[in-house]
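step=encode ok
step=design start
structure_in=
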């Protein structure tokens, strides 16, 4: 079998879109998963107009934060009819509630159709545990019934992305053990950076050919990448970028002419390339599930048919509500452990603690000099660096009482350190100055030098205690 080139994929995608655009019957997304009649549950809408018990139907689900263009992209992937999925084009108002689905007709006789799922924006994360429990049910259900999850965001591997992945991970990996059961049949993931600007492209130009290579490089070094490798198929984590779409793109879309030959734009080319990658994956797994370069892959079926999901919904609804802050708390615990390892355990006596912390530093230390002799600024900078290494927001870390107490202790220690530096770190007490004095004034008389040092030290101690 011959490899499918990127240009060939794009051409196939454009032909498919043009055929869909000329289809006599408009595609309209129907509600699929919606809040249930019992509070805190979700229900499958069996009247969505599809055969919910059909197995192996390729399904692409678009997920991510609100107002990232999921509904527009879902409509474009379904053929470009702006009425397929409801959208507002608003920068502040989201439209989609629950999940909606449409079925794109097969490209040729005997082929399978393609299902597109548009999902509610994930704006509830971190605001309400009740809402988060509902979002979790939607996410797990969508994961189990999709061939590929498409995440839309304006950042690269954002904190909200991993928060959402943790919402799903502990159930599908630890409870269902999907990797052991499904292996290479696991869903794929496509991470899309939307509204990419030329300035953002400079992050990877010169080192990577495109965003896909940059994404793989960033993912390789991420501390939470392992959870993604356990959730998704081998070789199934990919990146793609969409440029900022223009007024011309919007007008062509609203007029139903986005996929016409008359409309040309970088945004259109990028969406066509994306469709080619989603429907015709870049690599195919071998018999062991390992990807093979250059061979077109069969479309991966979802883990569950939609009709089979119903028996799992009661179990999913009974899951203990997961707070995404639980994952952040794990990172904060690591931060606390790092602080204790670096500075010892906190002492209850504030005055003794201030002296103890001040004694850890030396005015000659490079970080102390860099921060103008302020050890509280040194401690803050080290804390922020640890947060960066753990991909933990500093604001989240500062909500922890122990972390805040450490910084307050260093604030008190700063005054002690400043007084000690003023008293003991004078130029006339440096070794160089004392040796010069010995040579120039005391003719290296050890007794005279000892008396002078003793007197100078006593005077410094008096100054320090007075401060």
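sequence_out=
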């Amino acid at each position: 079998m011959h490899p499918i080139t990127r240009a060939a994929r794009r051409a196939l995608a454009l032909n498919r879109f043009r055929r869909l655009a000329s289809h006599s019957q408009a595609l309209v997304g129907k509600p699929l998963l919606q809040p249930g009649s019992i509070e805190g549950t979700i229900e499958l809408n069996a009247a969505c107009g599809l055969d919910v018990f059909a197995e192996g139907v390729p399904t692409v689900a678009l997920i991510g934060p609100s107002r990232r263009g999921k509904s527009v992209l879902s409509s474009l992937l379904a053929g470009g009819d702006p009425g397929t999925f409801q959208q507002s084009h608003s920068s502040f108002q989201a439209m989609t509630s629950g999940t909606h689905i449409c079925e794109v007709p097969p490209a040729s006789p005997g082929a399978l159709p393609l299902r597109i799922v548009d999902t509610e924006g994930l704006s509830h994360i971190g605001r309400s545990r009740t809402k988060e429990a509902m979002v979790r049910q939607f996410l797990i259900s969508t994961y189990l019934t999709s061939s590929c999850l498409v995440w839309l965001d304006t950042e690269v591997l954002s904190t909200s992305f991993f928060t959402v992945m943790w919402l799903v991970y502990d159930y599908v990996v630890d409870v269902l053990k999907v990797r052991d059961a499904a292996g290479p049949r696991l869903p794929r993931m496509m991470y899309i950076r939307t509204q990419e600007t030329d300035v953002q492209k400079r992050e990877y130009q010169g080192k990577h050919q495109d965003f896909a290579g940059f994404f793989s490089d960033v993912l390789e070094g991420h501390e939470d990448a392992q959870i993604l490798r356990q959730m998704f198929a081998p070789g199934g984590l990919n990146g793609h970028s969409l440029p900022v779409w223009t007024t011309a793109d919007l007008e062509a879309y609203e007029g139903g002419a986005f996929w016409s030959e008359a409309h040309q734009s970088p945004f259109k080319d990028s969406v066509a390339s994306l469709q080619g990658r989603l429907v015709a994956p870049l690599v195919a797994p071998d018999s062991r599930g390992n990807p093979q370069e250059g061979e077109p892959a069969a479309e991966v079926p979802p883990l569950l048919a939609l009709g089979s999901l119903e028996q799992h919904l009661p179990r999913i609804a009974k899951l203990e509500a997961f707070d995404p802050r639980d994952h952040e708390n794990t990172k904060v615990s690591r931060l606390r452990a790092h602080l204790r390892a670096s500075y010892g355990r906190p002492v209850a006596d504030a005055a003794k603690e201030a002296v103890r912390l001040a004694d850890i530093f030396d005015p000659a230390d490079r970080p102390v000099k860099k921060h103008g002799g302020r050890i509280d600024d040194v401690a803050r900078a080290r804390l922020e660096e640890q947060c960066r290494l753990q991909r933990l927001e500093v604001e989240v870390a500062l909500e922890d009482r122990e972390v805040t107490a450490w910084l307050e202790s260093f604030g008190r220690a700063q005054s002690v350190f400043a007084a000690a530096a003023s008293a003991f770190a004078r130029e006339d007490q440096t070794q160089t100055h004392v040796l010069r004095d010995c040579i120039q004034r005391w003719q290296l008389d050890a007794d005279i030098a000892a008396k002078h040092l003793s007197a100078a030290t006593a005077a410094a101690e008096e100054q320090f205690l007075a401060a």
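step=design ok
step=annotate ok -> The CA atoms of residues 26 and 348 lie 71 Å apart.
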